[in-house]
Amino acid sequence: MIFKQDSPLLGFLIGFSIPIICYVLQLKFIPILIGHSFTDESMQLFSLVCNVPFLRYFLINLKFEKVGKGILFATFIYAIIWIYINQVSI
């Protein structure tokens, strides 16, 4: 099984795909559930936070440090992109 390997590439792929999936789910289901949508900035930030349970699962439960490092690296890349896109111009 591919998820039983300790590789940083697997972690990067997980860390890269989970925020995208979470963001798309928010775009589809939040307006249906509560009647309105949140701002793009808050939905993007929440999508980044969705990586935390996966990071914890691979680091704590499975003891896969390389996968955890890959997820963390993808999260940092997304965070830098989020800060760049949503910076307030002075």
Structure description:
The chain is mostly helical and about 90 residues long. The protein has one domain (about 1-85). It contains 4 helices and no strands. Helix 2 runs antiparallel to helix 4 and helix 3 (about 50-60) packs antiparallel against helix 4. The model has no long low-confidence stretch (mean pLDDT about 90).
List the topology elements.
Blueprint: H1 8-34, H2 40-49, H3 51-61, H4 65-85
Helix pairs in contact: 1-2, 1-4, 2-4, 3-4
Mean pLDDT: 90
- The domain count comes to 1
Number of helices: 4
Fraction of residues in β-strands: under 5%
The arrangement of helices and strands along the chain is: HHHH
Could you tell me the number of beta strands? 0
Task: Please tag this protein with its features.
90 residues, mainly alpha, globular
Short description:
The chain is an all-alpha fold and 90 residues long.
